[in-house]
Amino acid sequence: MASIIFLFILLITCTGTTDAQSGVCYGRLGKDLPSPREVVGLYNQYNIHRMRIYGPDQQVLEALRGSNIQLLLDIPNDNLQNLAQSQDNAKKWVQDNIKNYGNVKFRYISVGNEVKPGDSAARFLVPAMQNIQRAISEAGLGNQIKVSTAIETGALAESYPPSRGSFKSEYRGAYLDDVIRFLVNNNSPLFVNVYTYFGYISNPRDISLDYALFRSPSVVVNDGSLGYRNLFDAIVDAVYSALERAGGGSVNIVVSESGWPSSGGTATSLDNARTYNTNLVQHVKGGTPKRPGRPIETYVFAMFDENQKQPEYEKFWGLFLPNKQPKYSINLN
Question: Across the chain, what does the average pLDDT equal?
């Protein structure tokens, strides 16, 4: 067990202190998970310095007081209407969930997660972002906390080759064009949930497992002068191309989720999960072919297995078991 813990610490800390430093998403849809205070202790034990949580859980925020963990805090989709309708509502949200926790290191606020064009929240997304941004600025936190939203790669109309990346017109019309203008104006990044696992299982005939796991020994996809050896880079650069086509060429991407399940579905195993996550946190330090040498801030999904999720493979993305033991050793050599 000592060797497993040492190797896991290497996984997280070898990413250094740049923006490539990897965080871990802390989902709570599981029974028998450790208390938030224990979880914060686990982040500190393993030198994980960034966390994403999916709503302003007061127990978690209390546990984070005085820690050095930087936080990406989500506003759930079902809160967007309330925040869009009134600046006072947004101001109260910031007071209750940000200002009241002055010794918590907030880094980002994600207003919504994977909002789809047909969702009832879609028309409230940008007004909620604008109101939260104003409230953050009025609180004197505009230089400290960036406001954005997280999209899924299903928002892409084209992704192959990466240089042809573009967003679906229904996403652009519903909210994405306005989101991109907001991000440009506020110098904020776009959060993107990137899962090569789903790309692989949806098209195993054309996408090899090695390409999805960062194991391809040579270039798999040629795109003009650029060569792609892994699916992760191809997806991220397709989003960059789509941003450029939509007027967002100056916007940086933060990978707000990425991971691989260890059980419950096609190509799920402890070895594949270990391989993907090990390679991911090392790879993002070097950027992508389209933007080489520019580290990609990335949040591994997820901290724990969550046994209240469905379908079956959704239960097994954790780096840790609920008893706080790492699920697998991670060899970086």
Answer: 93
Among 138, 158, 244, 257, the one annotated catalytic: 257
Select which of 38, 114, 158, 170 is catalytic: 114
Which segments of 63-125 are extended strands (E)?
Answer: 70-75, 105-113
Q: What are phi and psi of 299, to 5 degrees?
A: -115, 115
Query: In sequence order, which residues have a C-beta less than 8 Å from that of residue 173 and are 6 or more positions away?
Result: 117
- 88, HSE (Cβ side, Cα atoms, 13 Å): 0
Residue 297 appears among annotated catalytic residues: no
Strands (E) across the chain are located at: 23-25, 50-53, 70-75, 105-113, 146-152, 156-158, 166-167, 190-193, 221-223, 226-228, 253-258, 298-300
Question: What's the helix, strand, coil split of the chain in %, to 5?
Answer: 40, 15, 40
Overall pTM > 0.85: yes
257 is annotated as an active-site residue: yes
